[in-house]
Amino acid sequence: MSVPLQRPVANKVLFMATCLCDAFYDDAARASVEVLEHLGIEVIFPENQTCCGQPAFNSGDWKASRKVARHAAEVFGGDLPVIVPSGSCAAMHSHGNRLQFEACPEPAIESLANRTWEILDYLVHGLGISTWKGAFAAPTRIAFHRSCHTRGTRTGEAAHALLSSIRNAEVVAFGQEDQCCGFGGTFSVTFPHISGRMGSLKLDHILAQQPDLLVSADMSCLMHLTGLARTQGRPVQHQHAIQVLRDTLA
User: Fold this and answer.
1) CA distances from 3 to 94, 149, 172, 177 (A)
2) Is the pTM above the cut of 0.85?
3) pLDDT per position as a tens digit, 1-39
4) Which segments of the chain are extended strands (E)?
């Protein structure tokens, strides 16, 4: 995955809440804003934002996804960083858009790609925060799931660094950590049985370590894994990584 090496950092950012925040994980968006504001960052939320276009892109309807991408580039125009609490949506802006506009690049699309940050990547590699001055009330074992869309980016290392620096936190290793959870957006709809088996195998490895908390930087993975866990009668507590940072603030 091609990731921009030079992206702007500022004390004012544009915030993209994502479809899953809007529909299911509103507190992940709230936590993102609270953490950024705690760090002295002014957060601007364009109210006419919609989707990053990934569902249409992954389904092969690039005509529709280009339309959505152009809208996002207009909504998040300018030169401020665009912060997203989702490795998947950030990858769509920085990688997927470059693919679908490769034959005919558009300056606004390229600008959006260059300015988009996944939020944990922004905290560590943009703002230079290497440790998190927070604490759990009691020892807490965290299983951190690295989503496929963050491969080739620095989100995973950023999340691991921040989570492991929290007092009373232990980030535990588990088998086949780099394997996909099976969600894959529209993949889980097109191939539900394969998706379910992949997720169940992932859960087997995670739950074998008896974590207190399942954490990821992608809500889609959390939705898939915890939905399977509930259905199978082995629920696990879960949070987006940014919620953990917010909730452990000293």
Assistant:
1) 7, 12, 28, 22
2) yes
3) 444 446 888 799 999 999 988 888 999 999 999 999 999
4) 12-15, 42-44, 82-84, 116-118, 135-145, 167-171, 213-216, 238-240
pLDDT tens string 168-220: 999 999 999 989 999 988 889 889 999 999 999 999 999 999 999 999 999 99
d(CA 183, CA 192): 9
CA triplet 45, 129, 177: central angle to 5 degrees?
Answer: 90
Cβ-proximal residues to 64 (8 Å cutoff; 6+ apart), any chain: 53, 56
Instruction: Return d(Cα 167, Cα 70) in angstroms, integer.
Output: 43
Name the nearest CA neighbour of 81 among 18, 187, 9.
Answer: 9
User: Per the domain annotation, does 74 fall within a domain?
Assistant: yes
* 26 vs 17: CA distance, rounded Å: 8
Residues β-bridged to residue 2: none
Pair (50, 152) in one structural domain: no
Residue-number span of the structural domain to which 206 is assigned = 135-247
The CATH number of the domain where 60 resides is what? 3.40.50
Say if residues 221 and 145 touch (Cβ distance below 8 Å). yes
Question: Is the same domain home to 142 and 230?
Answer: yes
**Displacement of CA 34 from its chain's centroid (Å):** 17
Q: Do the Cβ atoms of 123 and 162 come closer than 8 Å? A: yes
What number of H helices and E strands is found in the chain? 13, 8
